[in-house]
User: Fold this.
Amino acid sequence: MPEPSDLSRELAQLIEEEGSISIERFMGAANKHYYATRDAIGAAGDFITAPEVSQMFGEIIGLALADVWQRAGKPDDAVLVELGPGRGTLADDMLRAMKVAGLTPPVHFVETSPLLRAKQAELFPDATWHETIQTLPHDRPLLIVANEFFDALPIHQLVMTFNGWRERVVRNGMDGFEPAPGEPTKYGEVPMHLRHADPGGIIESCPTARRLMRALARRLHDQGGVLLAIDYGHYGGAHGDTLQAVHAHAYADPFARPGTSDLTAHVDFSALAGSARAAGTHVAGPVEQGQWLVALGLSDRAAALSRNAPYRAGEIGQAYRRLTHPEEMGQLFKVMAVTGRNWPQPAGF
Ligand code: SAH
Assistant:
């Protein structure tokens, strides 16, 4: 058995003291450690994201943002904000496309990982980094992009037992960390139609994502701008346990060796849309990523790139398939737009 990491020891100690910790706390601590210690994205890492599949992804998003910006009257103080920019690839591709359309905004990154910040700084030495969204500029329109960001935020889970719904927690088991039912849930936390589910049933929510969306939507409402959230997930309905761990491009046990695999959960777009609407903003979508990219001209872009570099046509075709095919990222991944007051809606919805 491998030696337990510092993080595993810390968490085991914490659980020893408190009896258990919430899934939310476990996931938050595991991911914080994970992103701070690994450059995990890409072929050599643990998982590949759409911007790492092809430059076309970021170019289409860049053009979509440039288009709304133009229709909003080209405000010259608008800034580009990316939440969780990873290796900086998406921002690089977006800005190249935006420039062609006459948009060259200052770049603001919301990123907690020092390691990824350093990676991003190689491409963007002049960017401004933020630990949270609170320090983003307060007095100008924000063009905000979040790709595979919301799925990494810690979720809260409830599990049905023979004694009713309980919070799902993490305990120290015989073979390491294990999920277990914790305290009974507060009344009202479970939707009416799920009050009598079968034992073992799980429901989840992401309070952090909802809070964040509400705060971002308030900003868009007051300052103008748009937000594009792209992630894997669903719109409404109960989806059970979607917590998953990925390590070296394969699924892993989310409770084994925290901090060494990427923990994510399906994004509940209906919850995010609700938070955005509550702040008075307009929501479009979500629509499936494949549909959205094609509606915005991905086919033409792929054809143009292949014409310019015929020797890469096979690779470009594969990337196109990966981004759009229903069995790949095309259907599970979705795009949702939030539009600030007096701003037009982005295209493709
Ligand atoms: N958007 C990139 C990276 C996705 S991975 C891409 O598509 O390739 C998730 C990113 O979000 C990483 O950069 C990670 O460090 C960052 N991140 C995760 N939780 C965060 C938080 N709470 N605040 C800010 N950034 C966070």
User: Anything to note?
Assistant: The two ends are 50 Å apart (CA to CA). Residues 31, 35, 41, 49, 51-52, 84-86, 90, 110-113, 116, 147-149, 152 surround S-adenosyl-L-homocysteine (CB under 6 Å).
